[in-house]
Amino acid sequence: MELLQSYLGTQLGYVIWTLLKIVVIVAPMMLAVAYLTYAERKVIGYMQVRIGPNRVGPLGLLQPIADGIKLLMKEIILPAKSSKGLFLLAPILSIMPALAAWAVVPFTDHLVLANTNASLLYIMAITSMGVYGVIIAGWAGNSKYSFLGGMRSAAQIVSYEIAMGFALVGVLMVSGSLNLVEIVKQQGHGFAGGSILSWNWLPLFPLFLVYLISGVAETNRAPFDVAEGESEIVAGFHVEYSGMAFAIFFLAEYANMILVSAMTSLMFLGGWLSPFPASWGWLGAGSFFWMAAKMSFVLFCFLWFRATFPRYRYDQIMRLGWKVFIPVTLVWVVVLGAWMMSPVSLWN
Amino acid sequence: MSFTTVVFYILSAILLLAAFRVITAKNPVHAALFLVLSFFTASGLWMLLESEFLAISLVLVYVGAVMVLFLFVVMMLDIDIEKLREGFWKNFPLAGTIAIIMAGEMALILGSPEAGLHTYPARAPLSADFSNVRELGVLMYTRYMYATELASVVLLLAIVAAIALTQRQRKDSKAMNVSEQVAVRAVDRVRIVKMAAAPVDTAATDEDQPQA
Asked: Signal peptide span per the entry (chain B) (predicted)?
C-alpha cells in the first residue's frame, strides 16, 4: 500500500489499494460459485447413484467453465412487450447485493475489507435488497409465469427475513456487538473455555436451526424453491431470461448461498476459531482454513437438503415462517434475556 | 472541494431527480422503484453525516421491507393511468400556487438570518471508536425511555389491530389447515384389514392367466 501511495499520491493510492482488495475477494468468489455448481451436480449425482458431470476435462472439472462459455455465447432475448430497462436491471440488482455484502465479512480476525461497527446491520440491509432483483425480473418480463414466481419469492423472502432477524437478535444479545469480528471473538471464550462447545450453536441451538433453515428459504433453495416450481410455473421469475442475463441469476443464487454459509459459520460456528485445543499446532490455531471448512460444511448441507427433501407447498412455507419460526425465536429471545440476567448465565 | 462534498452533491442530485420521477413517472411500478432509489440515496446522505445506524436502518426497513410490500401491491393492482391523469391541467394552477408558496416559505425560514444556519458550526469529526448504535441505545433507553415505550405500544396495537382484521374467514374458503395435515398419521387414513389366505384351485388359476 505504501508503494502504491508513493507512486500515485495518498488518496488515489488508497482508492487503488481498496479496489485491489475488492478484486482479491470477488475473483475467488466467482471461482467458488462456478465450482459450487460443479460440487452440487457431483454431490447430488452421487446421492442419487449417478456420477454427475464427467465428460469435460478430468472428472468433469472443466464443466463449469464450459457452461459459462456456452451461456456467454447465447443471445439475450428481450421479450417484445417487456419493460426493457428494468428487464436488464433485474439481474444486476440481484447480483449486486450478493457481492456487496462481502465487504464486511471477516475471513480471519484481521483479513476483512471493512471492519465496521455495524457490519451485521450492513449485511442485513444489503441482503434485504436482493429481493428486488427477483420482483423486478418477475414483473419486467411481462409474463404471467414469471410474475407468479416473482410474487411467491418476494412474499417468501420478506417472511423469512423476520425470523432471520430475530435469530440474529439472540446472537447480538450474547455478544453485545454488531461487529462480526467481535461476535466471533466472543465465541472464543465462555463456559467451555472457547472450545467447540462455547460457540453459539450450542447455547443458541433453536436460533441456529431457525437461521440455517431461513437461510435456505432466503436463497430460494430446495425445499423452499417455489419461486421456480417447475411443475407449476415453468421456471419461475427467470422464465423470460436467456444467455448471460439468465446465468447472472444463478451466480447471484450461489453467491448468496456462500454468503449465508459464511454468516452461519461466523455467528454460530465460531468463524475462524479452531475446534481443537491450541496445543495442536496449526490445527489448533484459528485460521482461514477453519472458516473455509465450516463454510464448506454448511454448503454441503445445502446440497444435501436439495437431494433429500421434496418441495414445500406454498401455504406450508408461509406457516413455517410465520407460525413456527417467529414464535420460536421470540420465545427464545425472552428466555435468553432471562438466562443472561440469572446467576447461571454463561456470558459473564 | 473535498471528496465528501462532491459525493454530497452527486447524491443530492440523484435524490432530487429520483424524487421528481416518483411523481412524474407514468408507470406506478417505475414510480415505486424511483422511491426506492430516493430512499437509498437519502441513506447515503446520512452515511455522509457519519450516522451509519440510521442510514442502514433506513435501507433495512424502508427499502428492504416497506417498499417490497408496496411494490407487491402496486404490481398486482390494475391502475388506469389515463383516469389518474384526468383533470391534471384543471387542478394545476391551484397546486402550483400552493407549491410555490411552500417553497417560498421554506426558503424564507432557512435563509433568514434568525435561523442562524450560517453560524451553525460544522460538526467535529467523530473518533473512530465512536459507536452510533451505543449512543442511540443509551438515549433511547434512558432519556427518551417513555417516548420509546409509548411508540412501541402504539406499534404493537397497530399490529394487533391488523391481525384482528384478517381474522375473519370466508365460510366457503377451502383453505386447508396445515397443522392438521402435518399431524395426520397413517392410522387415521388407512385401515389395514388382515385376511386369511384362501386355498387356491390350481386349475382355475391356469385359465385365469392372460394369453400372452
From this structure: none
Nearest CB among B63, B176, B182 relative to A129 is that of: B63
CB A262 within 8 A of CB A224: no
> What is the distance between the alpha carbons of residues A123 and A215, in angstroms, rounded to a whole number?
13
Q: Once rounded to an integer, what is the mean pLDDT over residues B29-52?
A: 88
Per-residue confidence at B50, pLDDT binned at 50, 70, 90?
A: confident
Query: Considering chain A, what percentage of its residues have pLDDT values greater than 70?
Result: 94
What is the average pLDDT across A45-65? 86
- Continuous H helices in A176-229: 180-187, 205-218
Mapping DSSP to helix (H, G, I), strand (E, B) and coil, where does residue A228 land? Answer: helix
Return the residue of A nearest to B60 by Cα: A125
Cβ distance of A83 and B179 shorter than 8 Å: no
CB contact under 8 A, A121 and B76: no
Task: Give the pLDDT score at A261.
Answer: 92
- With an 8 Å Cβ cutoff, are A151 and B57 in contact? no
Grouping H, G, I as helix, E, B as strand and the rest as coil, residue B13 is: helix
Domain definitions of chain A by residue range? 1-73, 78-341
Interface test with A, best of B3, B27, B72, B132 (most A CBs within 10 A): B72
Cβ distance of B175 and A161 shorter than 8 Å: no
Interface test with A, best of B36, B46, B59 (most A CBs within 10 A): B59
CA contacts within 13 A on the Cβ side of A336: 25
Whole-prediction pTM: 0.84
Compute CA B143 distance to the chain's CA centroid, rounded to the nearest angstrom: 29
What pLDDT, on a 0 to 100 scale, did the predictor assign at position A193?
A: 65
C-alpha cell at B156: 404493537
> Worst-scoring range by mean pLDDT, A272-276, A329-333, A339-343?
A272-276
Confidence label for A201 from pLDDT (cuts 50, 70 and 90)? confident
CA A215, A217, A220, A222 dihedral sign is positive
Test A135 with B71 for CB contact under 8 angstroms: yes
B59 contacts A118? CB cut-off 8 A? no
pLDDT for A300 beyond 80 = yes
Residues contacting A245, CB < 8 A, separation 6+: A76, A88, A91
Q: Using CA atoms, how far apart are residues A245 and B108, in angstroms rounded to an integer?
A: 51
